Amino acid sequence: MMKQFSYAIRDLSRSYKKLFSIIITLFISLFILSLIINLETGLKKELQNNAKVLLGGDFEVDTRTKQIDSNFLNELKKKSIVSSTIEFSTMLTGSLTDETNAFFIRLKAVDDQYPLYGKVFSKPQNAMQRLQSEVNTIVVNRKIFETLNLKVNGTVYVKQAPFKVVGYVETVPDLGRALLFGDFAIVSNRAFEKLNVTSIGSFVNYEYKVKAPNEDSLKFVYEKLKEFPTYKIRLPENAANNLKRLISNFSEFLSLVSISAMLIAGIGISNTLISFINQKNVSIAIMKSIGFKSKNIKQIFYIEILLLLFFITTLAYAMSLLIIPQANHFITNLGLSLESQFSFFNYGLILMTGFLVVIIFCIPTVSSIEQIKATSLFRNIFQLTRFQLGTKNIFLIFMCLITLLGIFLLRSDKLYYTTTYFIFFFVFCGIFYLLSKTIIYVLKQFKKTKSAKRIQKEAEFQGKACELGVAPQVFHVDLDNKQIFTRSRHYGV
Q1: Using CA of residue 111, residue 116, residue 117, residue 119, what is the dihedral sign?
Q2: Which tens digits make up the pLDDT trace of 109-135?
Q3: Sign (positive/negative) of CA torsion 410, 411, 413, 417?
Q4: Are 120 and 167 in contact (CB under 8 A)?
Q5: Is 282 found in the same domain as 380?
Q6: What is the mean pLDDT of residues 338-344?
Q7: Which of 119, 178, 277, 369 is the most exposed place for a label (fewest CB within 10 A)?
Q8: What's this model's pTM, rounded to 2 decimal places?
Q9: What is the Cα–Cα distance from 367 to 356, expressed in whole angstroms?
């Protein structure tokens, strides 16, 4: 095996340029897959570490469309710190007369205890202080501020009520349902009374964030909540899990698309590899003539492929780790920060995925080496090798596909959808394969028919040439212009 390994190293160092298309294809596919998996891992870890920030407290009491019982609230405030917030959907405009730039927003009314966890980063920095100290003030998100060309101390309208803009928000904890809407704004609880939110369609939510100083406070709250079964309790892990589920679903979808792209790209990889083997017909024939068996030569090619795969996977994974911190720009509104962290599990998962995809398409390609005979070297006859599928190869390919499917089923939260996706993917691949074969067959039949007609016409022109006294070996027939050419003259027909 060491002999094959050393030969593979030498051959790869000489022939890597011929495999450039394989290198590029694998790198792009594995880089995208690495980026998706590492982003998912980083986001889930960050969500786990900042679960209380995302919720805005140790737990949340959601009373839906009614305010909390006043006696219960007073007892709650004695044992813990409570921040009451009110959320509802509404429209925000920059002018009462021009509603072309209206925004459908999630408006959050907060008290002076907000936020219990995390910080609100705004411009200017005193925006939240002004929000609580001045009447009828509002803080909007950056997109609204820039789209409406707002200035500090400018005016916007919510339900036709004017509000002074004291700044815009860059990062806010406890984003909650506003994440689903994209655009949001914050006002004080005192300003809430100015708005008419009792009308149908406001969908008001009363939420109470609780920060308990100790375990006794938590136990007291839980015991008291039993008296109000209609109240909904949200824990930090609940807030994180919702986003985790969203991230997992999105990541899973992108991963499946990435694997599908790799499988499609595998067709190009196999074609490049078969061309590479055909270029080495002479070398393979020489190796067989000096005692190498087909098994040994196939081992050399597999070693080359695995070395390339290992190098490309390492490079793609490293590049993804460098890119991940750049994604922080897109999650600033969540108050999260991603850091690159090497994971042996993720690296092994990507390497295994790349290995399975490559092997699926390399098995019938590398097996074609058996078609090259040592005797062809002495006869100087080299025929192009073809993909070789046998019972053994089909079985190995099937097992690789099952393993690949198993990997994604283990990572998936929705086994049914993942399985269905793969089934439909391979079904459609089979349909397109049969369709391409049908088209090729039809074109070949058309070419045969056209060739037969051409031969018939050439025979007719040969007869004309003989009548003109032109020897068959010195004439050329131009069927398009219906002319017969000789070395010195031509005859019109």
Answers
A1: positive
A2: 888 888 888 788 888 888 888 888 888
A3: negative
A4: no
A5: yes
A6: 79
A7: 119
A8: 0.67
A9: 16
Same domain, 256 and 383: yes
Task: Report the C-alpha gap between 429 and 449 in whole angstroms.
Answer: 30
The answer to whether residue 344 sits within a structural domain is: yes
- In terms of phi and psi (left: phi > 0; alpha: psi -120 to 50; beta: otherwise), the region of 305 is alpha
Dihedral of CA 465/466/468/472: which sign?
positive
**How many domains does the chain divide into?**
3
How far is the C-alpha of 458 from the C-alpha of 37, rounded, in Å?
Answer: 64
User: Would you say residue 40 lies in a domain?
Assistant: yes
Q: Is 223 exposed, middle or buried (0-12, 13-18, 19+ CB in 10 A)?
A: exposed
How many CB atoms within 10 Å of residue 486? 14
Residues 307 and 169 in one domain: no
> Span 408-422, mean pLDDT?
72
Find the domain containing 112 and state its range. Answer: 81-211
β-bridge mates for residue 107, sequence order: 88, 185
Q: Is residue 117 in some structural domain?
A: yes
The encoded tokens of residue 60 equal 């949340």
Domain contains 20: yes
Q: Are residues 378 and 480 in the same domain?
A: no
| CB neighbours of residue 29 within 10 Å | 24
